[in-house]
Each structure stands twice: as C-alpha cells, then as structure tokens.
Design goal:
By secondary structure, the protein is of the alpha+beta class. The chain has 9 helices and 5 strands. The model has no long low-confidence stretch (mean pLDDT about 80).
Length: about 220
C-alpha cells in the first residue's frame, strides 16, 4: 500500500470572458458617473484589467459618441480625464437649482484675481496687485484654501517672491481639459461679470522661475 500523498491540485483562476461592447459601455458610463473626479483612461484600464485596452478605448469612444445628442448631459474631457456633466447651454437652469449654496461661490474679487493668474501665470502677488490696483493677499489665501491656485516656484528677482499658477481643481471647476482650452479673456470677463484690465489683453512673457525650497509649500498642496 503506497504512503505517497496525493498531489494537491492548485486551483487556477479561469480567464473571465470578454464583455460585449454594450455591457462594457454601461460599466464605463457607471464608473465615470460615480467618480468624484475626472476618470482618466489609465484608471479605466486599471479598473477593467480583465478587458483588452483596445476594447476599453473602443467602448469609451462609442460612449462619447452616444452623448453627442443626449439631452442635457454630455461626456466632457476635463483635466485629462472624463466627466459626465450638464451641457453649458443649460448651466443657467442648473444655477437656479443651487442658487442658495452661496458659500461655494467666489466673490467678484476672487474671480478677477483667479482670471489674472489663469492668463498671466506664473505670476507674483505683487504683479497681481499691480494689475488689479488692490492688495490681493486675502484673496490669494481664499483661492489657495479652495485649491484653485498653488505656489509653482519663485521669481528670480530680489526677495525671490512666490509665483502662483492654477491647479487641476481649477480645470475641473471651469470644465477645461487643459489651459489651452481657456476662452479669450473678453469672453471669460463677460461670463464672470467684470471688466478685464488692459494688461490681460497683452501676451505674457514666460517668467524665469526658480525651484521651490524644501518647506516652501504644504504637503497637501494640490496638483
């Protein structure tokens, strides 16, 4: 009688069958809708790692096409990812729904300062104040707290002042994929309700920027 132990069989996970495109589109739509932040293709590939990348990309492209004529919603490319948002032509109706949430609104001074930073970045606090003809330290603090701007470096002049730029949260807030999507300053000013300073119409010259020193910015500074 043999004393040999039987060989233990190790279970092997069987490969999951590939999803039909209609099902894959539905899964992607649910993920994009549920995500609080724009969902990047890389994240979708990771979440759907059992599906070939080419299938995910094809389903994503087909889903975008589905949203071209879908009522009040569209699938927008925002900050390098995808979000399901309301169409711009219906924003006024959506604003009526949220008109009481005034605590989330930016003041006119904050919007004007944010516009200066968006179109002139990287820019120092002194340069922002010169453009707006007012002290902007309090407004900058508010924008930093809202994660709409961040410190991106130091200017190579006496005192080495901080240089400010916009963040990924800024892109998300204004529905932009990147800074190349910024509208003309006249259009932005009209939309936000302020008169743009003439200097904003001028083309910016890139600043000579020094790297930040260790401890210059908080650990939780946004992207």
């Amino acid at each position: 009688m043999s004393d040999e132990n039987p060989v233990e069989e190790i279970p092997v996970d069987e490969p999951q069958p590939r999803m039909e495109q209609s099902q894959l589109k539905a899964v992607i739509e649910a993920l994009v809708f549920a995500s609080p932040d724009p969902l990047t293709p890389r994240m979708l590939y990771r979440l759907l790692n059992d599906e070939p990348k080419e299938d995910v990309l094809a389903a994503l492209t087909a889903l975008q096409a589905d949203y071209v004529d879908r009522g009040g919603l569209h699938m927008a490319e925002v900050a390098g990812g995808f979000q399901i948002t309301t169409r711009p032509e219906y924003h006024e109706w959506v604003r009526r729904l949220f008109h009481e949430r005034s605590s989330n609104k930016l003041s006119a001074a904050s919007l004007e300062t944010l516009s200066v930073i968006a179109y002139k970045q990287p820019v120092t606090a002194a340069e922002i104040g010169e453009i707006r003809s007012v002290n902007t330290s309090g407004v900058l603090s508010t924008l930093l707290e809202r994660h709409l701007i961040k410190i991106v470096g130091r200017k190579n002049v006496i005192g080495r002042p901080f240089l400010y730029g916009t963040t990924k949260e800024f892109l998300i807030r204004f529905g932009l994929n990147d800074l190349n999507d910024l509208p003309k300053i006249e259009e932005m000013a009209q939309q936000l309700g302020f008169d743009p300073p003439p200097v904003l119409m001028e083309r910016s010259v890139p600043e000579e920027m020094l790297p930040l020193d260790e401890g210059d910015v908080p650990d939780d500074q946004p992207e």
